[in-house]
Amino acid sequence: MSTAPTAPMAPKADLKKFFNPASVALVGATDDLSRFAGKVLMRMTDFGYKGKIYPVNPRFKGQKVRGFDCYASVRDLPEAPDHVGVVVPAQHVLGILEDCAARGAKFVTVYTGGFAESGTAEGKALQAEVVALARRAGMRIMGPNCNGMISFVDGFAMTTSATIAGPRRAAGNVGVVSQSGGAGQVNVMWRAQEAGVGVSYQVSCGNSSDLNIIDFIEFMLDDASTDVIMALVEHIPDGRRFMATARRAAALKKPIVMVKLGRTEAGGHAAASHTGAMAGSDDVTDAALKQCGVIRVDDCNELYEMAMLLRAKRIPQGPRTAATTISGGNGVLLVDHGAANGLEWPEYSKKTREELASFLPKMATTANPTDVSNALIGKADLFRRCVETIAADDNIDMVIPTYTMTPRADLEAAVEAWKATTKPMAMLWIGKCNDQPDFNQLTIAATGMPVFRNTLSCVKAVQAAIRYGKFSAANAKRAEPARPAGCDVEAARALVKKAAGTMTERASKEVLAAYGFPVTREALAKTADEAVRIAKETGAEVAMKIESADIPHKTEAGAIRLHVQGDAAVREAFDAVMAAAKKYKPSAKLDGVLVQEMAPAGLEIMLGLVSDPVFGPVVVAGLGGIHVEVLRDLAYRVAPIDHSDARAMLQELRGYKLLEGVRGAAPRDIDALCDLIVRLSWLGADLSNEITELDVNPLILREQGAGAKVVDALVIGRKS
Fold first, then answer.
1. Dihedral sign (CA 293, 297, 301, 302)
2. Are 560 and 546 in contact (CB under 8 A)?
3. How would DSSP label each residue in 175-211?
4. Cα–Cα distance between 248 and 84 in angstroms, integer?
5. Which tens digits make up the pLDDT trace of 589-635?
6. Could you tell me the CATH superfamily of domain 521-597?
7. Which fold has domain 603-717?
8. How many CA atoms lie within 13 A of 482 on its CB side?
9. Using CA atoms, how far apart are residues 611 and 416, in angstroms rounded to an integer?
10. DSSP state, 69?
11. Three-class SS of residue 131?
């Protein structure tokens, strides 16, 4: 796996000359096709590059390399090349880059490995020097440890990849970005092309020391040739910048489809809070991608299947789906998979049913899905009319013509119907052409119509497209989140800085109160007599808990008593809490016992913040109490968020029905909870440099209109 240490920021690059250079130099050039540089030069010329090529290798100075004059150094070139490829051992790369800088090169691709990906201090240091040199010189670097790029649009390739051997494929409208060379070029680009999905550009940026996937996505967003972007990603280099770029993609209606590797990667730190312990990096990544409209899929097949559907620029406006089929069983299978994935199968309008009945065979049905029966096989004109009739129905958002074994003309009828309407369609072709065996999926795909060979794949792609359409519509109306009134940022910051680490429950609640959270009435008792006095002032029943920054989880320590009532009980509880704390952690500094009001009955909710190394502060919500660790029913959003984001979080929870009220229980105050989630997200965003983790567990959520109250909280600040 490639690695990408944080590099100094660089200005946005204009990558036109990167992909379409007028002149190219290749350092390390050779005619020897057993060597990496020899393959790069061969692929470049065989691909049909028409610009100037300058081989550079002191061994062949004054000679011809693949028919081109060879130079000893980049400094000796007759002009500043637009793009330089570097294929030399790692220890020579810095010297080559100095030559490139001196000659005025603007783009350099470093193929060589032995840098940060090695995991050694030397490799990381060398990569840092490469970036520093590039920044000083105003050059932009792709790599190191990469396999280059391909522009089908411009007819330029600088790669060793055998995927472009033979006649050059026509340019399509789907871009490919990845850190990996082999996986990006074979698993994604080549397989997409084999499935009939044309590619505009492909890049494999390796270690991403400078130019990274975000830079290339931004180029493709600005490029008129690219309508969909497929991404195979090992690491996201800058989470916030990536999310902003993805939202821009959605605004431009250029979907990003991604396979994000590393689902099983554990969190990158030892978490002290429940939130931190449960927020794995992939949980956060998955939420962030949904939040910015990226379509995440599980494997490379799904990548190009989604691209095939989306490149047609017909996004379903809703889940209302219709299908035609010549097999009743296939229709049932389609409905089953569809219903399980959120598709709806509404009835056609009366007008549609009547029109279908006017020309379909008697054994056909006019229901949805429409079983046209075997009697329609060989009647292409009726196939077309059937699909067009259904597509014209205002009750339908998406049409899936489904075929098994049928003549070519019948299949082409669906293509003609697709061309005749603007409604989204996807052909599901499970069988083969029974009169022309060489007529296949590629032939259909070449027309631009999406075509699938598997029912579940088709359904999942359609469902993802529907989700994307919904996000895109909402994103177009979305304003930037606004900080709620009543958030005292400076007061909260001062409290966290004063603690300089793990805060006590009382201090944690003070931070929350500064952001408008309702907290329990409480006071600290250092003696049993003080506890009795505070209890009388607080209420008939109290909760009593140890107050110690060294014991963040009081339940585990047994240092908590609930529903304590009466002087004698309070004294006994005080002594028991102190004794339990001392036994649990003899070295702990004990401030006393916190005596607080018993919170009213309600539903226990857990809220939290965690600092993600990629995306920064992330807000977490789920059902609370001790069950949160067992059920792990949690939702995540990158902070800050607005009220609609907060409600969407809650709706993702499996336990959301409990909030709405079940089995006679009253609905809970969801609006109040959403407001607190928003406030917490802003606390995380405002104090991202001061707080690493935060727990609110439990928050007692009362009936609708009655609000909520924080019962327990834990803030973990950054130590200076």
1. negative
2. yes
3. EEEES-HHIIIIIIIIHHHHTT--EEEEEE-TT-SSS
4. 31
5. 999 999 999 988 899 999 999 999 999 999 999 988 666 667 788 99
6. ATP-grasp fold, A domain (3.30.1490.20)
7. D-amino Acid Aminotransferase; Chain A, domain 1 (3.30.470)
8. 5
9. 53
10. E
11. helix
CATH number (3.40.50.720, 3.40.50.920, 3.40.640.10, 3.40.50.2300) of 16-310 reads: 3.40.50.720
Q: Yes or no: say if 616 and 637 are a contact pair by the CB < 8 Å rule.
A: no
Q: How far apart are CA 250 and CA 477, in angstroms?
A: 12
**Cα–Cα distance list, 269 to 266, 273, 642 (Å):** 9, 11, 28
* Residue that is written with structure tokens 């049993």 in the block: 528
Cis peptide before 698 (omega within 30 of 0): yes
Outline where 88-156 has alpha helix (H): 90-103, 121-137
| 5: pLDDT strictly greater than 50 | no
Q: What is the pLDDT of residue 414?
A: 95
β-strand pairing of 427-429 with 451-452: parallel
Structure tokens at 571: 């004294």
- In whole angstroms, give the CA distance from residue 133 to residue 96: 11
**Rounded Cα gap, residues 426 and 612, in angstroms:** 39
| Phi and psi at residue 270, to the nearest 5° | -80, 115
Chain centre distance of CA 520:
38
Show the tokens assigned to 297: 């899929």
Contact 654/662 with Cβ under 8 angstroms?
no
**End-to-end distance of the chain based on CA atoms, in angstroms?**
33
∠ CA 306-612-114, rounded to 5°: 75
Average pLDDT, the chain: 92
The string of DSSP codes covering 316-335 is -SSSBEEEEES-HHHHHHHH
The pLDDT score that the predictor gives to residue 281 is 75
Q: What type of residue sits at position 262?
A: G
Tokens representing 608?
């939290």
Q: Can you tell me the distance from the alpha carbon of 250 to that of 403, in angstroms, rounded to the nearest whole number?
A: 33
**C-alpha–C-alpha distance, residues 55 and 25, integer Å:** 6
Structural domain spans, the chain: 16-310, 321-477, 521-597, 603-717
d(CA 386, CA 396): 14
Number of residues assigned to the chain: 720
Long-range contacts (CB closer than 8 Å, 24 or more residues apart) made by 386-389: 386/324, 386/356, 386/359, 386/360, 387/324, 387/413, 387/414, 387/417, 387/418, 387/425, 388/417, 388/420, 388/421, 389/352, 389/355, 389/356
